[in-house]
Amino acid sequence: MKTKRFLILFFILITTFALVSCDFLITFGPIDEKDNTLSTLPVPVNGTITFDDSDYTSMPIYVSDTYSITDIDDYNDVLFATQEHIRHANIEVLTTLTEDRFTLPWSDEKTTVEVGVTSGSGFVFMADDDYFYAITNFHVIDPGDYDATYEIKAFGDEDFNSATLIAYDSDIDLAVLRFAIDSRTDIEIIDIYERLYYRFNPGEMVIAVGNPYQLFNNVTFGEFKSMESIENVDYKVVYHDAYINEGSSGGALVDVDGNLIGVNTWGIESVDETASFSIPNYIVYMFLINHGVID
Q1: For residues 68 and 123, is the Cβ–Cβ distance under 8 A?
Q2: Catalytic residue among 39, 139, 142, 169
Q3: Which of 147, 152, 163, 236 is the most exposed place for a label (fewest CB within 10 A)?
Q4: 249 is an active site residue
Q5: Which residues of 20-31 are buried (b: 16+ CB within 10 A; e: fewer)?
């Protein structure tokens, strides 16, 4: 009988230890949610991809080595380098609208008349042997019912130079312009892939570059707030507080290392002058894939 009781007590002790040990592993051994798990790019079907807002929550968290810098001088060096980098990628976009009108009411002769000029921002995201390719908003280049010619001023340019519209989507409000490399040597390219299909971290620093009020290469700093729905579009947009204004449309929103987060498109001055909204990078990627700009 004593032997039997001893075996029962021994079995209880062993079982209890096993349960406590498992609890120890569960409590202290999970994968850190900040581990930089690699994102997965979608596979195009018939040359196109889609994105649903619910897919956002399944994306991994992004972690930059810059987040762990504790020396203020080293951190400032990163910020200054990023600021300079995005300025070298920024462009100013000029859209001139024209139409042909009869010279006189009773004449068959026509002349081309300028009916308007709009300006905005954009940024270089790709290059080949002959051309740079820049992203901007559709509403920056929208021809409406008129003929349109496009010009850009890139870093180091003294004047505007001809550009060609190669892709656009009015619903998403994005467009791509192409311009010749020529003798330009100071242009830099913003990485559109590094932060692709990662969630944005609430409170992380974001940096906007653009040309508000034709102030070329203006850079502002802020933080990512949240993903929000707005009336203009049917996808969620990036809400941040890096200041943008008229002329900023089409400019890049990047992270602390200069990787693309979104395209600055909307600001709400009447509610909060620091409330800014951007098209997220995964919508930009979808646009580029679906319009054959990238493979």
Answers
A1: no
A2: 139
A3: 147
A4: yes
A5: eeeeeeeeeeee
Tens of pLDDT, residue by residue over 156-189, are 999 999 999 999 999 999 999 999 999 999 999 9
Count the alpha carbons within 13 Å of 199 in the hemisphere toward its beta carbon: 20
Residue 212's nearest CA partner among 94, 125, 92 is 92
- 173 noted as active-site residue: yes
pTM (2 decimals)?
0.84
Residue 262: closest CA among 244, 227, 288, 238: 238
Which of 121, 248, 249, 276 is labelled catalytic?
Answer: 249
CB count, 10 Å around CB of 205? 19
What is the rounded average pLDDT for all residues in the chain?
87
Tokens for 285, please give them.
């990627």
- Is 139 catalytic? The answer is yes
Query: Scanning the structure block, which residue is given the tokens 């693309």?
Result: 260
**What domains are there in the chain, each with its CATH number?**
53-88+191-290 (2.40.10.10), 89-180 (2.40.10.10)
Q: Which residues of 44-80 are buried (b: 16+ CB within 10 A; e: fewer)?
A: eeeeebeeeeeebeebbebbbeeeeeeeeeeeeebbe
Ranges of the chain whose pLDDT falls below 50: 1-34
From the candidates 85, 173, 241, 255, which is the catalytic residue?
173
CA angle 193, 143, 175 (to 5 degrees): 5
CA distances from 225 to 27, 44, 98 (A): 30, 30, 41
What DSSP string runs through 221-283? EEEEEEEE--SS-SS-EEEE-S---TT-TT-EEE-TTS-EEEEEEEEETTT-TTEEEEEEHHH
List pLDDT tens digits, range 273-285: 678 999 999 999 9
